[in-house]
Give the backbone structure.
Amino acid sequence: MARLKPWYQVVTPREDLRENRPLDASEFAVHLDHIRLGRAHADYIEPKRFFERTFFTQSLLDLSSQVVRRLSGVAVETSAVFNMATQFGGGKTHALTALYHLAKGGDESKNWRGVDAILTKAQASCPRCNREFGQAEKDLLIRLILCVDPKAEAAAGLASKAMRSLGIDVQGLPEKERFHREAVRKKITADMIPRANLVGRLGAIPVRNGLLPRAASRSQT
């Protein structure tokens, strides 16, 4: 029977373990601002070192990929705001540190351990492509929602989402965002035509009772 090698001959422990100087409890309780100012431990300040010591759980991978998508200009299938509610020691600061390094590192972050999995999940290898196709995807989604019966059970919640995307029933929008939604609304409502005239009109939206007349009337005000 073959003899098993000692574990320290199979794997190489990190230098802090080899030199008997592990992080103490105060260094684990790091502040994000200390990382930004370069006052935290090197394990947190140096991005390559940080990612080598980070295990990407499914939750951390989901969060990171959605943020990368959002920063790349993709507004669909990703949240603009995240509520990071965990108990003490649940990983909030660690997750924010990962996002900080990803946002600051740019293309350099592609060389860090685990980032390839984030980019694969985010499908955000080309920011310009993501901005253009992301907007086209959002435009198509709005058009599809406007074509369905808002009272149908399968369309529950979609109607209000489409209206908000068109700037309807939304208060307190920044001026730039309000102008953007108004432009989208005018573009889409310009394609609204009676059902009888749909033949041969690719991309046209049929006028029906419910959402579309409301969107059209708002665009004329």
Q: What stands out?
A: Residues 127-219 form one domain. Strands lie at 192-193, 205-206.
